[in-house]
Amino acid sequence: MPNPIFPSSRPDRIRNLLADLVGFDTVSDRTNLPLIAHIESYLAFLGVKGERIVDDTGQKASLWVTIGPEDRPGLVLSGHTDVVPVVGQDWSHDPFKLVERDGKLYGRGTTDMKGFVAVCLAMVPEMLEAKLTTPIHLAISYDEEIGCVGVRPMLREVAKKKIKPLGAFIGEPTEMKVIIGHKGKHGVRATFRGLARHSSIAPDGVNAIEYAAELITEIRRRAVKLAAARSNDSLYDVPHSTLLTSIVHGGAALNIVPDTCTVDFECRGIGITESREVTDAIVAWAKAELGPEMKARHPECGIDFEEILDYPALDTAADAAIVTLAKSLAGRNDHAKVAFGTEASLFASMADIPSVVIGPGAIAQAHTPDEFVAMAELEKCAGFVERLIAHCVKG
């Protein structure tokens, strides 16, 4: 008789696991420990134990799981557990309850990217039944949505291990296309410190917003220049680095010269370190051109800068072994690059693990109200993992 907790049908297993995962509200400002504990219980039922890596707050954790021999280099299936907020979005149902309609599974995180995690967990029984000669690792992280934060402590631990994995598949939604590259991102916050005065004597004050506007204008000027320097890499849908101001806060009242203004800006660069190079140049310009002028008007005025997000670009060689394997497992001959960022670049840069991005669902569904993933996509992903298992049996 089938176990009600553990259905024998693979599609039902995937559905049940995805329903469980969606049921945990793991928006990035909340703990993911209940979800991690649930995954650990599921794995324990199968006789598998993972390695939990807890953050400094004790409220977040990643999970590293090895199935198969531990004395040989293996292949990684990686996914994150956090999701973006639902506040302000018009959902037709509870976003943290899985709903199935017309072959589509709706709920926050179904595409990005609990669907992939559910498939990997659903395939653990097949991994255990197979006589793997190459191990399969599951890397389950947190806080990807706020700058690929949670995977970093886990990768630092992985990098210490004597045996390095052969490669990693990061299951972000690509409709199971093989993605070999993505842009890097560097985000900076500039805080302008002005001097408040009554607006009737505005020249006696230092207007933080007006100086911030000069920075924004410079960012825009440089963005246009980047767009003109188009890359020859036709694999990108936006074939140049991008730069923009995204958030501005400042001012208290119409009749007060604003004494503070914050500006958040980002660059998404094609080159491995280009995004940071672009923002560093802007910071240097502001420190040289705007900061001294503000300070000359009042010694306490100026600009403070802080990094708010950073991850490098991914650029895996098209002829790399992990790319060839991904194409074979996916049954495709093509590859592509994307503008959105993933943890894949950190697997490559922090742990020297060659990586590709491949997972079920479409990026167009990520972060949207009534987010969904098609069941057919999840089954296609399960077929990919099934072929990976067969590959790891052959060795």
From TrEMBL:
InterPro entries: AcOrn-deacetyl, ArgE/DapE_CS, Bact_exopeptidase_dim_dom, Peptidase_M20, Peptidase_M20_dimer, Peptidase_M20A
CC cofactor: Zn(2+)
Enzyme class: hydrolase
One Pfam family here: Peptidase_M20
The UniProt record lists the keyword Metal-binding: yes
EC number(s) recorded for this UniProt protein: 3.5.1.16
Protein name, UniProt field: Acetylornithine deacetylase
UniProt source species: Bradyrhizobium barranii
